[in-house]
């Protein structure tokens, strides 16, 4: 079956919570950055109405829910496809996840590690209640969380704000380790990455400006989805294709700023059986993995719980194994994180 690639960003805010731009303006920024879709995720409010095509960009409306009576206000959960207000269920993380599941909605733990920003007295907004089940996945790479975590003090904040490329390196190793430990237990946990764009204007000493415009962030950490039929401007069918791919983890996270990750491929086969990203492969003897990247980089094939099983430089990597497990790919370019694929689950 042919697959089609879509590029989008699944985490951002509008003036319905703490963002600056409304949906139509955000869609223009997304179009300028070459995205196919965006999902807005306002804090504790599901915004009914703006979902649909704005020009060529499909705007979907999700929600980022947390319990605002909790201190600190940790446990941010991204919800996609509920089409209803979900913050009523925020008091219990598991209750929220189950309420979303009842509506066939997806739940992703947002910025699961979010270090405190001591010099501006911001508390950690990490995920803390790990005794949960039945969620769809985790947000392995959140651009703004990473940026905040990489700036050590107020003075360097100004320098980094004008040189964000030098701050951004990739998902936190600890977040990847949490994901791997879940995968190694045999769980299916989809990974996504997102901007967490707000478009806010910051004042740092004498300087006041929008440090991270939506359009800039839409050129950075995105998700690339694989779907079975191209989008055709039928909002409900197109939305279903996008959410199905996210649910299955038929996607990779790409830091497109340092080189478009369009065209990345990761597949496995075992005799007559074959599988792509996010899919299951039933072993029939040895399994051969093939990775192809749109430009040269350092490619690592990782088996969750076992670490790197194969690596090499260039545009291709091939590896044969007899072992079951969740196999995923990381690609770096010049030391920067570039591509983080979801696993192929070998049974
Ligand atoms: Zn958040
Ligand atoms: Zn957010």
Task: Name the features.
binds zinc ion, alpha+beta, 36% strand, 347 residues, single chain, two-stranded antiparallel sheet, 18-stranded mixed β-sheet
Structure description:
The protein is of the alpha+beta class and 347 residues long. The chain is 20% helix and 36% strand. The protein contains 8 helices and 20 strands. It has an 18-stranded mixed β-sheet that branches. Strands 9-10 form a two-stranded antiparallel ribbon. The longest helix has 14 residues, at 235-248. The model has no long low-confidence stretch (mean pLDDT 95). The structure holds zinc ion (2 copies). The site of one zinc ion has 5 residues, from loops. One zinc ion binds next to loops.
Summarize the structure.
The chain has 347 residues and is an alpha+beta fold.
């Amino acid at each position: 079956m042919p697959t089609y690639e879509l590029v989008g960003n699944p985490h951002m805010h509008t003036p319905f919570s703490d963002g600056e731009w409304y949906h139509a303006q955000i869609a223009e920024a997304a179009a300028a950055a070459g995205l196919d879709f965006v999902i807005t995720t306002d804090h504790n409010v599901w915004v009914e109405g703006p979902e649909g095509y704005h020009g060529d960009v499909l705007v979907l409306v999700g929600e980022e829910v947390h319990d605002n009576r909790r201190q600190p206000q940790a446990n941010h959960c991204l919800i996609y496809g509920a089409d209803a207000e979900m913050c009523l269920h925020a008091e219990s993380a598991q209750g929220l996840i189950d309420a979303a599941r009842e509506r066939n909605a997806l739940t992703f733990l947002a910025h699961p590690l979010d270090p405190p920003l001591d010099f501006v007295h911001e508390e950690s907004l990490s995920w803390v209640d790990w005794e949960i089940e039945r969620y769809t996945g985790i947000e392995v790479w959140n651009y703004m969380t990473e940026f905040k975590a990489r700036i050590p003090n107020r003075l360097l904040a100004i320098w980094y704000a004008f040189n964000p490329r030098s701050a951004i390196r990739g998902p936190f190793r600890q977040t990847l380790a949490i994901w791997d430990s879940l995968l190694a237990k045999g769980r299916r946990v989809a990974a996504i990455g997102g901007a967490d764009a707000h478009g806010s204007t910051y004042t740092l000493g004498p300087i006041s400006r929008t440090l991270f415009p939506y359009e800039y962030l839409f050129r950075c950490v995105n998700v690339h989805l694989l779907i079975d039929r191209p989008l055709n401007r039928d909002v409900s069918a197109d939305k279903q294709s996008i959410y199905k791919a996210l649910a299955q983890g038929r996607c990779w996270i790409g830091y497109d700023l340092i080189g478009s990750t369009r065209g990345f491929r990761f597949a496995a086969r075992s005799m007559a059986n074959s599988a792509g990203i996010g899919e299951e492969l039933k072993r029939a003897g040895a399994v051969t993995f093939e990775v192809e990247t749109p430009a040269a980089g350092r490619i690592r094939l990782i088996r969750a719980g076992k670490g790197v099983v194969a690596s090499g430089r260039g545009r291709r990597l091939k590896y044969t194994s007899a072992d079951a497990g969740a196999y995923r790919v990381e690609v770096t370019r010049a030391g920067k994180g570039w591509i983080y694929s979801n696993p192929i689950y070998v049974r």
